[in-house]
Amino acid sequence: MAEAHQAVAFQFTVTPEGIDLQLSHQALSEIYLSGVRSWKKRVIRLKNNVITGVYPASPSSWLFVVIAILATMYTRSDPSMGLIAKIQEHLPVSQSMSSQCQAVLSAVLFSTMLWLLLIFTMRLCLKQLLSYHRWMFEQHGKMSNTTKVWVVSVNFFTTPLLYSYQGSLPNLPVPVVKDTVKRYLESVRPLMDDTQYERTTKLAEEFESSLGNRLQWYLKLKSLWAANYVSDWWEEYVYLRGRSPIMVNSNYYGMDFLFVTPTPIQSARAGNSIHSFFLYRRKLNKEEIKPSRIPGTVIPLCAAQCERIFHTTRIPGEETGKQTHACNFQGQSDGPRKTCTLIPWAKARTKFFSTGLNKRSLDCIEKAAFFVTLDDDEQGMMGDDPAASLDNYAKNLLHGKCYDRWFDKSFSVVFYKNGKCGINAEHSWADAPVLAHVWEYALATDSFQLGYNTEGHCKGEVDSSLPKPQKLNWEITPECEEQISQSLDVAQKLADDIDFHVFSFQEFGKGKVKKCRVSPDAFIQMCLQLAYFRQNNFCLTYEASMTRLFREGRTETVRSCSNESSAFVRAFEGGEAPDVCRRLLRAASEKHQLLYRMAMTGGGIDRHLFCLYVVSKYLGVESPFLKEVLSEPWRLSTSQTGVQQVELFDLVNHPEYISCGGGFGPVADDGYGVSYSLIGDNMINFHISCKHSCPQTDAHKFGSQIKKALHDIINLLSGAQPEPKKPEAGRPEVKKDQ
């Protein structure tokens, strides 16, 4: 991601005879070719905009409608019921035009209006079809007649371009305040004693009967005006207004293949991978990437986040940051534009990097497609202690050396000395599944399409005409250097405090869980509840769910710690009969699935409460209920990373080409961040993070508890005898190893 190559098209010198021009034909040729490429891109974008704009119809359908209407005129029938004649009467045309030409022109105008009405009707129908979510709540394997008709109807619409569905996606509905409050109280019941719960219930009832309806009115008004009543506030207040370092606290990472490294040569791996990313960018610009869908269905997901994958940078600000996105044709900025003077990076950026050489170098980075780091370390599962090396690999991808990543870029790709690679992503512009889609494509293209020769080098010949990379130069004053050193100290302390444990569980996977007729995701969430209870107790648990069924949707929270899950855990730990525990486990799993489906279909709790809180701040009114809700810590923050493009990886013939997934830092200082991915039928990968500074957390000990919980619950489901319990009463206190 170096500074762009600068070509001089011509030179001139002043002589006694006048100005002597020395034209560079090669430079002029490059300028010409650059212009041709630019116009080709413009034409492609214009064509795609037309196709997307008229979807679910097609441009060719206009011609069909026109021909059909003209054909009826020659059969002396009038499908317009007199409208064509009315149009002809009011045509502002000269008298020189024959009546036959006027009739044809009127018919074309009528056909166009009819075609536009057809587009509007079809889009409205598609929007209604995509608003149907009852299929998610039907029992697996049993489809109602309504859903069958719905599936056939959705399949009627042809496969579109990437953004074709955007105008047909439904808006995220605003839940009823009463329903949200009820679901909230239900979610916190297992975390509170009777006194606490009674107090919280009173606050909730007061809010519901007074301030809640007033705040709800503003949200409904916003939902009528905006495409999504949550997303813009979520991006601004949760991400861009955050004042803590985004390294560790916000950014996340993705890993390379677990068992193989396509080449041990760092530069070759970087060359192939960077080429793969640009191939994806080309497909993205042409909208040749198919819209993402819910696995196994034809239901599309919102693609709005894809627009900012490349050439996007987060810029710090005084009260809030902003997202800048530079594309080939224009520069645009999303989010508030406020001067940056308060936080260290914003202050330093204004003082030291807003003019001259530093600004030019900074612009090259911030306008680049993405950032690349050539790391001089070796990473991966290697050496005498592969488990420990995997932990180090995760930590390095999360924060590196604290000075060798550009954490503000939409994503940074890291290439290690031994050919291993990984990715670090900024979170405000999009959620993990969007970048994971790019990462899967890059890994597969690098290994299976581009490939390497027998020596491990990239295939093909070197093009000597390509411009060489140019070094970015900086002017660092002593004052600026002092600021950099202070920021590095803060980052280093934050990085040193992170405790990480990554492991690949291969004793069984989702295949065995499905045979027990339990949702794999619900199964893992119950294991996490059991593991955390054994180490601490119950806690407020966050599981990320998407709301991309709706236009500009991002995420919602599934509160995995429920009355049903806590009842199962208490019964299992209390030594209840296996039949009782199995019944409670299935009830807890079904409840978790219901919560997940509710979150996906707009019936979640936390985004609604968050937006009500934002409105209260705008109005300058205090709500003790909302203030308490928004201050509750998520001590267990979890997320599943699923493989989206299974067709890119042949896990049958090449099972070694699997990624270990990715992870993130802990959300709470005294909590855990847990990311997991189910690979194939026999592998579950876990990424666990916490902080050394908290004496109640330990990533490796929690990992051991998760493994034990996995075995205990699968044994319960399969009818095997559980391991004998230890004689010690109660849960042991977890202390840090010094």
Automatic annotation (TrEMBL):
Stored InterPro entries: Carn_acyl_trans, CAT-like_dom_sf, Cho/carn_acyl_trans, Cho/carn_acyl_trans_2, CPT_N
Subcellular location: Membrane
Ranges that cross the membrane: 50-74, 103-126, 147-165
Main location: membrane
Gene3D superfamilies named in the record: 6.10.250.1760, Chloramphenicol acetyltransferase-like domain (3.30.559.10), Choline/Carnitine o-acyltransferase, domain 2 (3.30.559.70)
Membrane topology: Multi-pass membrane protein
Keyword check for Transmembrane: yes
Domain Carnitine O-palmitoyltransferase N-terminal: 1-47
Gene Ontology MF term list: carnitine O-palmitoyltransferase activity
Active site: residue positions: H427
Family that this chain belongs to: Belongs to the carnitine/choline acetyltransferase family.
Protein name in UniProt: Carnitine O-palmitoyltransferase
Lineage: Eukaryota, Metazoa, Chordata, Craniata, Vertebrata
